[in-house]
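The protein record filed below.
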Amino acid sequence: MKWTQAYFALSLITGGVYSDTTVTIYPQWLAQGGRVRYESDRWNKHNGLEQESLIANCRSIRTDSGRWMNRDLNDHLFQDWPEDAHRSGYPDPNYLKNISKQQELFSNYLADIDSGYKNEMIMVMNALHWPDWMNQSEHEGQFPNNIDAAAEFIVLMLQGVYDYTQGHIPPYFEVVNEPDVKEQIMNFTTTVALFHKTVAEKLHSRFNIKVTGPTMTGYNTVVDRNDFSFWTKLVDFMDITLDYLDVFSFVQLTYCFGELSPIYCYYQQSQDVKLVFQEDWITPTTGEATCITIKDNWYPVITFNEPLDIG
C-alpha cells in the first residue's frame, strides 16, 4: 500500500468554560515520520492566471499564479465540446488537436509558466458545466451520469495542454473544487469519490501528474456538526480514493477586513488534555496544554505547559 499525503491542522479551542479534551494518536500516522514545512515559493501564490500584460508587474511584487481556475467552464470548453461520432456519449478525441484552439485556450497558461518562477500550478475543475448531448438526469442536469465519459474530458483536455506546451502540464490537478457545496448535485461518497478515483486512474496512466482532492471548503467548521455526520462521508471518500489520489487536500480560508490572509490562528487558552495512544502502544497521559493552530514557522503544534512523560 502506498502512503498518501494528508494535510491537517489540529486545533483545541475552548470558550469561557474549560473542558477536558481527548486526542487519539494513531501509530500508522506517526510511523511515517518526517515533517512537512510550509513551502513559501509554492503557496505564496494566488488564484487564477494573470493577463499577459500584468505578468511582469505581478512578478515584480513577488506574487505568482498558483491555481489555474475553471478551464472546463471558461470559454464554454466542455459545454461546446462535440460528441465522438464513433463512440456515443463520449467527447470527440480530435477536438483539441487543432493548434488554433490550443492557442486560444492555453496560451495564457504558457505565458505564466514561462515568466521566471517555479511551476507548481494546480489546475482546477469546476465540474458542473457539460455539453447538452450528455445524459445528466441523475444530477439535476449538471453532471454526467457516465463518470467514465466525464473523466475522459479531463484526459483529453490535459493532452491538449501537453501537446501545446510540449509536456509542461501543471504538476497538480484538482478534480473538483469544493465538492461539499455541490452535494445536492453530486453525492459525496458515491459520485464525487468515484469521479476522483476514475480521473486519477486515467491521468496516472498517461501523465506524470499528482491528482488531489477533495478540496473541501469550510471543512473544519462542519465536520463535527450533527454528531460528526459529515465525517463519515469523508471517511468513505478517503477509503475509496486512498490508493489513487496523491494528495488529500482541504481548504482553510480566513478573512481580515475583506482580504484573504494567512492562517495565523492563535488559541492561547489553557485546558486539560489527555493523549490516548491507540491500543496502548504508548502509555496514556494527561496534562495542561495551550494549543496554537499554526505558528509563524507554519508548523501545527500543541504546546504543553509542563513536560509530559509518555514513555
Observations:
- Residues 1-20, 25-38, 254-271, 289-303 have pLDDT under 50 and may be disordered.
- The radius of gyration is 22 Å.
- Residues 163 and 193 are 29 Å apart (CA to CA).
